Amino acid sequence: MGEYGAAFDWARRQVESGRLPTAVLGLATADGVVALDAFGATEGRPARIDDPYWLFSITKVLTGLTAARAVERGFLTPETPLAEAIPEFGADRDDVVRLRHLVSHTSGIPEPTMDPPEELRAALLAPGRDFVAGTVSRYSTIAFDGIAELVRDRAGWEWDADITAWAAAIDAHGLTLDPSVDPHTVIDAERLGLDMRRFARHRNPGAGFIGTAHDLLALGAALLRIGSGQAGGIVQPATLAMMLRPLTGYIPRLEPYRAERGQDWGFTWNLRTRAPGLIDRDVYGHGGWAGTEFWVHPSAGIAYVLLTNQAERPGVDVDELDNAVVSAV
Asked: How far apart are CA 211 and CA 135, in angstroms?
């Protein structure tokens, strides 16, 4: 893998040591994929570079891009209240939850499990609140059902159909909500109490997508092109810049993204602008519950993806991988 050898050596070490069952690691520049390899196996199934994996919360930035497309087309703004799309939302709240709160984990909507027995909409409309909107940041997946509803109500789009459309335009044809594509099994999901069948049925706008390394590398390359000022693609350059503006500042941060992690939330993007373990803090992206990672370093001109399938990963420090990627550029 040439100059990126240290990054691939890192992935290989995680698998050989037993800290990860599989690892598919890929890197891309604005021109496309520059390196890609796979390691390990899931219950005898060797990992291959084109295998699908559950992306979990990387789904959030896909949904965020669709919402941003609705913003740049004049259908809504970050100030649009969720109650405009769902009038019954927040009937017992004296605050206003807006799109900017939903995308930045500051809505105060109580969070259900990832596989609730009821529909997501029931969880979104559950009474009560965690905190006043905009005053605290606590990681939220249910908020993304609200984002999807705002997009549907104001733009007339189904969130997943729009993702499929713009993904096809960048040659990311593998993004799907359909588990029949046979993603690698999350080896500890059952032990940790996640019912994957029920989870998949929810088609969750904050966690439900499945995809390949190629899909995310195509997205990373497209974002690098947009970030360098090239028009067209998924969103316009000014729209991407809007998505990367910090929205949480120095308000209190609750688990699991406490202040010591050195991150901020933009418009669904995790901005690691104060991360103490990184060489290059000009980075945005997102991780997923089972160990998936997708990060873009615009100044360095590199994006990378790590696909794996284990929720509990003691001893795995992805900052090590990030630094190995950036140092090779």
From this structure: 34
Q: What is the pLDDT of residue 69?
A: 98
Partners of residue 293 on adjacent β-strands: 287, 306
Residues written for the chain = 329
pLDDT class for 2, splitting at 50, 70, 90? confident
Reduced to 3 states, what is the DSSP secondary structure of residue 22?
strand
pLDDT digits (tens, 9 = 90+) for 109-145: 999 999 999 999 999 999 999 999 999 999 999 999 9
pLDDT at 288 over 70: yes
How far from chain centre, in Å, is Cα 235? 17
The backbone torsions φ and ψ at residue 8, rounded to the nearest 5 degrees and listed phi first, read -70, -30
- Residue 169, Cα to own-chain centre: how many angstroms? 20
- What does pTM read for this prediction? 0.97
Q: Position of tokens 């790590």?
A: 306
Distance between CA atoms of residues 92 and 126, nearest Å: 10
Q: For residue 194, is it left (φ>0), alpha (ψ between -120 and 50) or beta?
A: beta
CA–CA separation, 17 vs 317, rounded Å? 13
- The dihedrals phi and psi of 53, each to the nearest 5 degrees, come to -135, 155
* Residue 98 DSSP class: B
Alpha-carbon distances, residue 276 vs 105, 320, 323 (angstroms) = 22, 12, 12
Distance, in Å, from the CA atom of 254 to the CA atom of 252, rounded to the nearest integer, reads 7
- Give me the sign of the Cα torsion angle 73, 78, 82, 83: negative
